[in-house]
Specification:
The complex is a heterotrimer.
Chain A lengths: L16 E4 L2 E6 L2 E8 L4 H12 L9 E4 L2 E7 L2 E7 L6 H9 L3 E5 L4 E7 L20 E7 L2 E7 L4 E7 L3 H15 L1
Antiparallel strand pairs in A: 1-2, 2-8, 3-6, 3-7, 4-5, 5-6, 8-11, 9-10, 10-11
Chain B lengths: L1 E4 L3 E4 L4 E5 L13 H10 L7 E7 L7 E7 L5 E6 H7 L5
Antiparallel strand pairs in B: 1-2, 3-4, 4-5, 5-6
Chain C lengths: L16 E5 L2 E5 L5 H7 L6 E2 L6 E2 L12 E4 L6 E5 L9 E5 L13 H4 L8 H5 L6 H13 L14 E13 L3 H12 L4 E4 L15 E2 L2 E2 H13 L4 E4 L2 E7 L3 E7 L14 E13 L3 E3 L12 E3 H9 L8 E6 L2 H12 L3 E7 L13 E4 L2 E6 L6 E5 L5 E5 L2 E5 L2 E3 L12 E3 L4 E3 L8 E3 L9 H18 L32 E3 L4 E2 H9 L5 H8 L12 H12 L3 H4 L13 H5 L11 E2 L3 H6 L3 E5 L2 E6 L8 H14 L1 E5 L4 E6 L3 H8 L11 E8 L5 E11 L2 E6 L4 H15 L6 E4 L4 E7 L3 H6 L18 E6 L3 E6 L8 E7 L3 H11 L5 E3 L2 H11 L31 H4 L10 E8 L11 E3 L12 E9 L4 E9 L8 E6 L4 E8 L14
Parallel strand pairs in C: 1-7, 8-9, 8-15, 9-12, 15-28, 17-24, 18-19, 18-24, 19-20, 31-33, 34-44
Antiparallel strand pairs in C: 1-2, 3-4, 5-6, 5-7, 10-11, 13-14, 14-15, 16-25, 21-22, 22-23, 26-27, 29-30, 32-33, 34-40, 35-38, 35-39, 36-37, 37-38, 40-43, 41-42, 42-43, 45-48, 45-50, 46-49, 47-48, 49-50
Helix pairs in contact in C: 5-6, 5-9, 7-8, 10-11, 10-12, 16-21
Classes of the chains: A alpha+beta, B alpha+beta, C alpha+beta.
InterPro entries (chain B): SoxD (IPR006279), SoxD_sf (IPR038561)
GO molecular function (chain B): sarcosine oxidase activity
Protein name (chain B): Sarcosine oxidase subunit delta
Chain lengths: 185, 95, 985
Amino acid sequence: MPDLTPITPLGGSSLRTDTIGAISIAEADDWALASVAARAGQLEDTLTRARKLTGLDLPGPGGLVAGGDWRAWWMAPEAWMLATPLSASEDIVAAVKPALGDAASITEQTDAWARFDITAPVGFLERLCNVDPARVTPGTATRTVMEHMGVVVLRHGDQAFSVLGVRSSAGSLHHALLTAARAVA
Amino acid sequence: MIINHPLLGPRDAQEFTYLGDATLIDRPDGMADAAPEAFHDYLHLRDNPAGTHRELWYHEGGDRSWLVVTRDTRTHEITRVDLARDVALQRGRGA
Amino acid sequence: MSGYRLQGGQIDRTRTLPFRFDGRSHSGHPGDTLASALLANGVRLMGRSFKYHRPRGVLTAGSEEPNALVTLRSGARAEPNTRATVAELFDGLEATSQNRWPSLAFDAMGVNDWLAPFLSAGFYYKTFMWPAAFWERVYEPIIRRAAGLGALSGQDDPDDYDKGFLHCDLLVIGAGPAGLSAALTAGRAGARVILADEDFRMGGRLNAESFALGEMRGAEWAAQAVAELASLDNVRLMPRTTVIGAFDHGVYGAVERVADHLPIPPEGKPRQILWRITTARTLLCAGATERPVAFADNDRPGIMLAGAMRAYANRWAVAPGKRVALFVNNDDGLRTAQDLAAQGVRVSAIIDSRPYAPDPGIPGARHLPGALVIGSAGRLGLDTITVRTAQGREFRIDADALGVSGGWNPNVHLTCHQRGRPVWDDALAAFVPGADLPGGMAVAGAAAGVFSTHGALQSGHAAAARALEDLGRSAPAPTLPQAEDTPIDLRPLWHVPGKGRAWLDFQNDVTVKDIKLAHQENFRSVEHMKRYTTLGMATDQGKTSNLPALAIMAELTGKTIAETGTTIFRPPYTPVSLGVLAGRARGKDFKPTRLTPTHHWAKARGAVFVEAGLWLRAQYFPRPGETHWRETVDREVLAVRAAVGLCDVTTLGKIDIQGRDAAEFVNRVYANGFAKLAVGRVRYGLMLREDGFLMDDGTTARLAEDHFVMTTTTANAGPVYRHLEFARQCLWPGLDVQLISTTDAWAQIAVAGPRSRTLLQRVVDPGHDISNAAFPFMACAEITICGGLRARLFRISFSGELAYEIAVPARYGHALMERLMEKGADLGVTPYGTEALGVLRIEKGHATANELNGQTTARDLGMGRMVSDKKDSIGAVLSRREGMNREDGLHLVGLRALNTGSRLAAGSHLLERGADAVAANDLGWVTSACWSPHLEAPIALAFLKSGAARMGETVRAVNLLSGQDTAVEIVSPHFIDPEGERLRA
């Protein structure tokens, strides 16, 4: 283990959780992330190898799947994000790349994103982004825009969401989420 | 405006960035003899139709797909949306 | 009847709300508007008109009100030009009248009314013509003081405004009988419905009328329908919400007044929300607006629309006066007489312009068929009207209130927002929606010209059923209550001919005479008439005045109204505060902020920050005792040149490029060769736009055969990524290439200076040899540091010194910076900011955004030969255009001030000695300038015509804005180490 101490996306030494009425917003940093982009003509091989590694079928457009230690969501045509606990796999590329071989391009994304785990009714989104809540059902991953920031909205369950934005604007994203929570709570 | 993304369904145009005429896909061969003339035409000579226009939009606030959107410039009616990659392959673009 | 309050109404008499108008205390009840409460307190005079400062009272009972504009609240929350007719009364409401001095009852500017003969339409254009110098300095301030509306507080608005996004199957605009009927049909069918209404109480005219729906009063039926809709999960009721615009593809703008009816918004809550509603189908059920009839002095307080009188009496239980007369041209206006009489209000006369009009038989009321009102009298309010009978007899009638009805105009406004044109309907004597409606929109009820209650209920249901069918749902059978289905009887009457001024546009003070003048001066098309007279251009957009005015123009030109046509409406439907359009995007929330991984570290050290696009970057790191920023920057620069400096360069874009064809791809997007770049090496790349101009530059490292990491300038990270995706998806979809941004994934720190290697060797894990031999200039490697942390090391230099950039996962950037500071203490390690970074790169002659400004080429930068002609890369062909390769073209040069005490600024233009500072003599411009602590002189980079051939000559850098005129020597842009020995050391 390196003898350097990491900081959280919001720049603290510990993670922050805010509760506003029935809404909670928790800064989270426990996922290692890697992007998986199928190489030309190797989509099937990518799917097969990913299934072998994670036990998951990489989902179609807008999809999010989870099982065991893995989560996977669709990011772009023939490209996905894989997530697994950081504690188990600090160097996620070292874990994923051998399994995928030359079938896909793997890029570390762990620190590219700041993540907030949110407990809130789906109506919370209506002050934040222009997506139809009827389409943001559990098991979807939606890339959209909140306050000019590109984000991914993962809906895990009825009131369980994660919002991921680029790490450098974690503070602005957090502020936007809190403001919306105060407005609807 | 609402763009009906071929993979993701209807999305607000605020998520997209506009580029222009879809003929930008038809980039000439830079090593051909008449390349200067071909590039001049490619880059500067565009139709400006009052009616159906095929144009490139980029889903920057989404999945980063380039799309070819067929839009009536008079009414903004969008009659067709394709992945630009598919259109490019259909037009014979490859490696 | 002692006061003006009647029995009944939809007000809560169990509670009393005190409020103040112009400092006087009054009281009303929940359910009141400011207008109804003022009328109930006997206050008729509510404002002064825009131009003539005429005393004015309410004309209407809704959002179309042109007269009763007040300033609501006080101090920072003061909101001018609020219509008293829609301002919901709350406890402690404070309102002030506008456009009067010293008081509403005695307004000194009322003198304008006496000057009216000189203030006709076109007066401004004709009078204030010369001298031109007076336009802005003399005329405009005078006109603005004399004519106007309320004034802004000049203070920051303390309230928040929000925005939001809604999606539905059916948007129903307006909750009158048609809208409620439609919403019930669609809501019961399970469709996602939004029902929006500008009023705080849904029901529309049902709340204002006395007739029954089935066994119930209209207002009771409306309340019951609203209760049912509220019980449906798939229906969202949005009272206090005005749909302000119809945009492309079923997108609507709506403003919800969340807290305007409260003294101040609850903590954390917005005052208003701007909603962007995306809907599959829309039903416009916006009702209709009554129009007045113009006659001499028809603007006196007490004269109002007959339907508004009915609304005040039925909904708000307020009598419009003690002796009320009515002037109508249709049956609907007669309802007012019936309802007032039923409430015990004395109706003194009914003047009906229709010769055949039936007598409604109101006890005590004179019925005068075929008669006209030809004038009014009374100071600050109506006392008498003058009537001319069908037989030509003229006499006065005592009346303190006159209800006027000229018929109703369907509210077609939103049907026009996509260039739809209303069409004239002779039978209704009104414009109705045309066929070219916004996509997905249908119109029902009075907005479609269906004026009866039964018709509204029926058409609302039918239109909702059609929308459901379009959406693949079936509609339940209608359960419509019995309701009146009276046919329209109306005989058009637009104005009463005669002497005196007859008002059309009350808010902009446009009279029938002004229309005649427009006609006389040939401003006859409706668009010309509108602009010449300003009719319809006030905040009410002419809701009550447009049609009468164009009907008069039609009369004057001898055309029909259909031939004359109409102006159309644009968003917004009613005025919108700028605050809600801005929403949350105020102050530092205007845009997101991006922080570097070492931001908190830099902040703790007292760094001064600068905005670089969205990023905040450390600009310099002042030390105690340093009194000027340049003192700090000079120290930082010299530390890099002499020892080692650290700078966070995470903001540069990083794009991960992988795939079997990654090398070929990079080779095509850069103008110089990349195909043969060896693994473990970095190369500087020039990226061109297809038109041959420079787009961006940066270094790109090859980490593996099939893996490159490209860097971009901070500003171009997004555009370059977009460009690469375009090349990948649209130009060469057959190449095997995958792209993803990793800008935020890695914290990248420049370690620059002669001692940089020594410092890095102290953190790099054993086993990674970074000696000059093993890791030369332009090498790169994936290594580990600090006991196993993954890192990428690049030996690249922006400063011209021996330098590296080291990248670690972003969460470790802060700790790495601390570690490097700690390990380098004895080496003189110094953090430096963007200011020193700029000085270092100017001294080295490296280009950045100042030089890559979209108008410059590789040749201008002296890198023309880098553009390969051995391959097809983006921009290469057109970069060879003749015009971009002129011998006397621009070249990047260095400039050094001859006098070290002089100043040199970016943006200065270059001139020959002795040449006049005029554009014709321009030789180029200074792109970047700084004080060079190394050379101890002001230096600069500049583009100069034929610059490469002029080394050693002297020119002048002239900045007319700051009065600088500096003699400079033309030198190489590489002020430091032109041979590059330092960076290879």
